[in-house]
């Protein structure tokens, strides 16, 4: 699976850090049975990410569906394989084939979700005058 690169995602360590925060926040909210979007908004809404959060929610849900298991997250600076995969996809890097436990339709939806997050990052974080992710 390859995706065209996202300019903001590729060139902004701050945006990638916030994406990682979103992944971990989403996973923690799911494990705790909390409303995911409300928790994401509380954590990242002030960074100008409000429009991105539903797309990130969809991407994370499709990631778990595609993998057939819960998303593995790391701690602190240590990234899990799943987090590395998502960041590499977001940056448009080639990755090893993903072993997926889903239909081709779900795999296609997953690829579209990755691209949607890339596009929204470029739109939301690349606008002049937009509060940058940092």
How are the elements arranged and paired?
Elements: H1 7-11, H2 13-32, H3 36-44, H4 53-67, H5 81-90, H6 104-125
Helix pairs in contact: 2-3, 2-4, 4-6
Provide keyphrases for this structure.
134 residues; mainly alpha; 0% strand; globular
Structure description:
With 134 residues, this protein is mainly α. The chain has helices at 7-11, 13-32, 36-44, 53-67, 81-90, 104-125. The protein is globular and about 35 Å long. The model has no long low-confidence stretch (mean pLDDT 84).
Structural class label = mainly alpha
Roughly how many Å apart are the termini? 29 Å
Fraction of residues in H or I helices = 55-70%
Q: Please tally the β strands and state the result.
A: 0
Percentage of residues in DSSP E strands: under 5%
Please mark out the parts with pLDDT under 50 across 5 or more consecutive residues, or reply none.
none
Structure summary:
By secondary structure, the chain is mostly helical. It has six helices and no strands. The chain has helices at residues 7-11, 13-32, 36-44, 53-67, 81-90, 104-125.
